[in-house]
Amino acid sequence: MFELKKAVSALLMPLPAALVLLAIGAALLLLGRRQRLGRLLVAAAAAILVIFSNSLVSTALLGPLEARYPAVPEFSAGAGPGRLAGCRYVVVLGGGNSDSPGLPASSLLSSFALGRLVEGCRILRELPGARLIVTGPGRHGHPTHAARLAAAAESLGVPASRIDMIGTARDTEDESHAVAALAHGARVALVTSAWHMPRAAHLFRKAGADFVPCPADFLGLEPLSPRMALVWGPECLERSTFAVHEWLGLLWLRLRGA
Asked: pTM for this structure?
């Protein structure tokens, strides 16, 4: 069931969906069958790529997700951790990595995994009694993503003795239950990408965790402007993909009655 969910989710993302429509449409045109449908599918594929590669569209999709929870501001000298007081754990949710040999741990992390980890380490410095929890599975025969995050955290100055790893949780729902079980009711500072935070917060709340949302890795908070409608690029398609994935995830939770 998990693999099926991941496969369906992947196919619904803008680029894979466009490629599938393009392949079917091109096949129909080449075979000389149902030419009108073939042209329609090719046009739909092109439209998906054009729309979701646009800066205005990607920012509009990400903005409402990222604006839902405020970032943790800079800590003032002597002011204490503020709303994070009482957090006994700082949880950094996984975000993917490569397994290229010879690279330092921080260079193996995806850009958003690194953004999450840096924010988690920043918060952890203000909570001397707290522990760092990192999550994420790995590919067969390779270290888990949690282990990669832990190694990167150590390179950033976090002692290994303060790090707990959850390397078996496959998705955010699994992570929420694993963290709730590990924390035993203690308050945690939950760190993940701002665009992922609404879904993560929903799942952690449902799992019964006591947490403070600490969004990181903001991508779409730039104010909308007409000039964005004239900007296209692969980075915009990537941002749209993150947003579509999260909106579909929230829809799935609603359909499940969660």
From this structure: 0.90
